[in-house]
Write a structure and sequence with these properties.
Strand content: 15-25%
Helix content: 25-40%
Order of helices and strands: EEHEEHHHEHHHEEEEHEHHHHEHHHEEH
Distance between the termini: 66 Å
Amino acid sequence: MKVTLANKTIRDTTEITISLPERDSKISEFAEKLYIPEISADKNCVVLQCRKFPFIEGMEVNIDELNYLAKRIDGFDFYEAETFYTAAEMEKPDTVEDLINLSFQIDNYFLIDLNDKDTKKLNRVFLLKKYGSMPVSELDTAGTEEINEFFNSRKKGYVGEYGIIFKFKEEAQRLYDGLHFPPYYYGKSSALLLEGTNENGQLKMEFIEIPCDNIAIDKAFYRMGLDKITRPQISIDNCGEEHIYNKIQRITEELSMSIKEKLYTMNLYSKAIETMPDMGMLSRHKTIETVLDICNPQNTEELTLILNGADEFKLYEGVNNYRKYALNILNSPEYHFPDDIKAFIRLDAYARHCLSHKCHLFTENGLVVYSGSSESIMNMIERSNLLENEIKSGLAEDEGDLYEDPENGVGSQDMDMFF
């Protein structure tokens, strides 16, 4: 959605044209150019031009509201988008708040493409709109009595650019109250839920998609008004896989973090998951959980250091000794030995050679290898009571440049020492 905005009090010198939606850090840049606060619920901008919704031109708006509306529109399929645009054209909402609520009400509208002559398709769309869901067998055999009754009970629809639109109910539920954005996933699969009861006994909730810019968390704090909230609680929504966040939640509790520190940390955890090498999502969580068990962070600074360096750890699941690590390397696509030759290789010596200059540890989940150079992280690993003298951090004797680590490039030196 392209829109031209200006500061409502100094229009002449603050005009900017932007495309939405954008991430919150970018919205902060727009706010700076508009000379408005980075965090605010005020309608401190004015719309100078918006081709999609010309009726909002001249309207005073909040830039975060506009960005949220753009996310809603961006998530529509073609039919939903055409229904929304036509409904907006018909209703002509007075505020962006009304448009946001309308975006959650499109199932209350029935749009008919006047160029589409497929009556069976029209009837199926109508029934799905009315009932929400129906068995396919019933949809295919349903008669037209209900749709005929619907048309007969209405004098006329509204004709717009995309067809003629009808409304099922005159009054629909309003999900947006002008301050707290309704839960909505836009390109993510995890979210933090911040909940609490205000001084009037009303339950308030902020939905924060993660990973996100920390300014998004600050904005949620502002809208929540935490100074007036009793017993605020944090929970995770992760499409039925909330348990994979249990470890990091428990650590934030053990370190006695504030509510905001917990949110920042769980957001950083989510960012760490995204930056890890290509592997399944559950494997990424398992890797970080294993690393946290090893490092056992004692404060927020140590935990932050580990999460920022998460992409420098690798977990070889099921590899619990040197022999298995050697087989893992030799069976890799980069360096594959025939089985008849592999049987004569001294696997233990070969694996120890490959790991001699890497900080590593065998755990119950597998082998963890740290390829980074942070002395602080190495010190955390070394102090762990899980080490049992398995750590190698560059202190082993130099065995010579006999063979290059196959993970960093296949070498061609003499391998006699491994036979």
